[in-house]
Amino acid sequence: MRKFSLLLIASGVFSLSSFAQDGESYSDKYTTWSAGVDVGLNHFYGDLYGFYPESNIDGRNLGFGASLYATKWFSHLIGVSGNLGINQFQGKRVDAYFTAFDMNAGVDLQVNVSSLINKGSYKESKWSWIPYGGVGLSSSMPRIYDANDNIIVDRTERHNEIIVRGGLLVKYKLNSSWDLDMRYLGTMMVLSDWSDNVESGTAFDGTNHIRIGVTYNFGASDDKPSIVYARPINDLAVTVQELDDKVTAMTTDSDGDGVADAMDKDNETPEGYVVDGSGVAMDVDRDGVADDIDQDPFTPRGAQVDATGREMDDDGDGVPNSRDQEPNSKEGAMVNFQGREIKSGMGGDMANAFLPDVFFGFNSARVTSANEQRLLTIAKIMMANEDVKFEVIGHADPVGSEKYNLNLSERRAQAAVDVLVNTYGISADRFTVTGKGEGAQVGNNNSINRRVEFRLMD
């Protein structure tokens, strides 16, 4: 975490160019010019100074001052400010005091340290902390008075000084155009300690200022704020976080389906489901039921299915609704592949009766619940037509040896007969079990080749 923070600070310092991170110039993205005014109290310290503890003179501790500022920012971090000011200074010692009216001008280099602070947000801050330092010129006419307000020391010409200055400016964003300023300023006379008309040689004269003011940001708006509230480190931190999130998403698979979250369109796929490249559970027949729970994964396109993927068969004749031309066949009626009832007994059209196949899983002879519905159709036919007998023919796909597949196909046929005998009470004498092994393939779809067929016996 510490290395990450240092990286952000280093990146912010490195960005002392005239361009923002996204290539826009600062003048395009932010306002960089402003003007302000402040007022406040002044405290003088020198041979005479405010709050002299042993003075017999009341008051004369603080003066009043006001300044005008014009500021140009070259980046979110560095700006230059020019200023003009007028100040009243006062100070005292045991039995005397002085006053001076001072005019000054200066230029300061400003460093917006708050622009290097990361708060993890895109939004500009409403606060800005700006240390500054510079040089200036001061011109004053100090006079010293005794306790009775008589002039003791007067001057016939102004006292001019070079000063060094520095302090801290705290800004608060009132709205898009206006700022509230709170400023501390300290100055020191460079050439002499004559500013109070007394030169002791022991120390340079200096001043302290506490000010409050306002600043107007030229051209500022909600879409183009003042640059002093810009937080490029925040943007960089968010960018780094977004990249980290993307990397995490590319390496994280929340639902364990083998597709990374970043590309997974369904992050809640049940465990064990087979999915496509987008992380969506496979649905070969596109009936809306995932293959892993689809008990009939080869329903025709657009067919109406139940929650288990089985095609609806309202009259239970074994012919699904999508192909049933007589959707109201009576229970146990023998029908053809179109769902039409066969009425000519055991001859003639009986050979065209529709008899559903039963399908099995790979290397399995277990009858699933989906196939129990198909066997129910066979059972109804046999219970309604007591003379009907069936040859039950088992098949297998070509995977494995011929001998093994022959045995598997026989077991599948026998499993279907066992359900009809044990569940529906059909006599075993009405069935003949045959195994074809892999000798009667239907195309290349092994799911269909793993089946049991029913054929009418004469």
Quaternary assembly: single chain
Which residues form runs of ≥5 with pLDDT under 50? 1-22, 344-348
Name the helix and strand elements from N-terminus to C-terminus, one letter apiece.
HHEEEEEEEEEEHEHEHEHE
Assess the beta-strand content as a share of residues. 25-35%
Signal peptide: 1-20
Keywords: Cell outer membrane, Ion transport, Membrane, Porin, Signal, Transmembrane, Transmembrane beta strand, Transport
GO molecular function: calcium ion binding; porin activity
Region (Disordered): 250-333
Tell me about this structure.
It is a single chain. By secondary structure, the protein is an alpha+beta fold. The chain folds into 2 domains: 23-234, Porin (Beta Barrel), CATH 2.40.160; 281-456, OmpA-like domain (60s Ribosomal Protein L30, Chain: A). 17% of the residues lie in helices and 29% in strands. It is built from 6 helices and 14 strands. The strands form 2 sheets. Strands 1-2-3-4-5-8-9-10 form an 8-stranded antiparallel beta barrel. Strands 11-14-12-13 form a 4-stranded mixed β-sheet. The protein is rod-shaped and about 145 Å long. The relative contact order is 0.09.
